[in-house]
Amino acid sequence: MPRIFISYRRKDSRKDTGRIYDRLVEAFGRANIFKDVDNIPPGSTYPEELDKAIAGSDIFLVMIGSQWVDIRDDAGGRRLDDAADPVRLEIERGLQEGDHLRMIPVLVDDATMPTASQLPESIRSLAFKNAVVVRDDPDFNRDVERLIAYIRQLRGTPDQLKRRISPIWVSVGVAALLGIGMLIAQGLRPPTPEATLTPTSSIETVAMPDTETATEAPSSTAAPSATPTATDTPTDTLSPTASFTATDTAEPTRTPSDTPTPELEALAMTFEAEQSATAGYAETLTATAWTSTPTANATETFAAFLTQRAAGNLTRTAESWTDTPTHTPTRTPTRTPTYTHTFTPSPSFTPSNTPIPLGYAGNPVTENSAWTPVVRQIGGVDMVLVPAGCFNMGSDDPDNYPDELPVHELCFDTPFWIDQTEVTNRQFVDFEGRAQVGSIYTGALRPRDNVNWIEASNFCVLRGGRLPTEAEWEYSARGADSLLFPWGDTWNADLAVVGRAVGAGTQNAGSIPENASWVGALDMIGNVWEWTASAYLPYPFDANASGHDLPDEGDEAPDRVLRGSSWYNPEARLARASYRAYIEPETRNPAYGFRCVMDFEAGN
User: Fold this and answer.
1) pLDDT at position 207, please?
2) Domains defined along the chain, listed by start
3) CA dist list (Å): 98 to 33, 162, 282, 325, 493
């Protein structure tokens, strides 16, 4: 049974915390829930009890109400800026536990996630934690049940507690992306986004200094005001001179400097959500040498034969034909002529059997090494052919999670196409994709990030395709050999864009050709988590129940599955091709991207 520590401010969220506490007690027992009012014995020393409670906990809930950030003391100072503030001390102590303790912000009373710039340095990493939203009635019970379900999934050993939430940041946490810029260039003036459907806060964009940017038109009812234009004008950037480390003191004032700081992996630049798109890209993507000539189509071959036959090029030849009657008169009262008719038909025509090409319907691939990658440009985007075949979906590997079981064979009777790389910022602009906010990492050839499931799905439809199901994605990564990783069964962090700092973020799509899967798909692991069409449901996988559409209005939208890990996550366990992450489809994140698939006929 997990032990849960609850941190809250009485003046901010006492009522909501009390209701949630009662529900947690029902689910996990009073002895496993620590809330200071109920659990600190009279006469006890608070710091000592706090240390014992946090050290013995598995889950740390930070209750954040609408006034949590700005509550003031009697002197008018902000409570969070006081190094002796109990809530700040609790969070500092909880963060010191590292991976042993799962810290989950819980947003109540219509609160939004605080940005990193609003927090003292000692607790700034809280801004990047995945949050759970608990709304007021009539949604309260359902939201608390979701929170309890998360905690149940996290129940177990400390390693098992690293389950679902750490790979993914919550949608409201995108507001905290201002903190990315603040961590990198503290002191830059926060920008103002021009058009968002649900504005929450300013967002700063992180860009590599040698990377150009691509910007799409805003998602709104108004038509774009101008056609995207190309520019090669370099962007001025500022680099801070101060380095930032956690302390127990109030946050100092910082002034940006023009002096470059080599320790920073990237420079911050002001983000404008709807700027003119950049079309003059200096970067080029190096293509891996694949053959792009598919084997002849058996159906087309036989159709050509029928055409020839109809044109008269094929004729029947009579080997012999005799039609000469023989008359034998007989001198009798009755004369009976006798006719002898001999007919010898030509042999019937039997067409030869044309072999079905490997990977086509009727001739599935049975091992990865038998397949030679086929790359074809469809609608201006390089896509790779995924042949017909079977694989074992899921994993019984020692590092697996329960939702990867049972392992079951899944077959594809016909081939399909999948994007060779994740959708890039340039492609998103070129196809006039629509999203509520822009990418955080804006290089033209970087993956389009910060998109939710709905925006990704709509973009693929715009291209004439769709999001892959999680089965299609996993088969494209693992193949008939059911590999653990696209390149084999041994983890190699050098073959994936993983474990990078926030200032570095993503990398150009397809920049590591050695990580190609058996069909030639690149970056199936790392760079960005990839949305799939599939709802998060128990195995065995059911394509008919997976679903591509959102529920009817008023129904709860099912969580959607993401695959493939991201630049932010260093863990090999999360990078296995069978790993299933999931979250609400409305969630967006700088570590979320996608690629599209198309039916086989699209490439013909």
Assistant:
1) 38
2) 4-166 (3.40.50.10140), 368-603 (3.90.1580.10)
3) 20, 11, 42, 107, 22
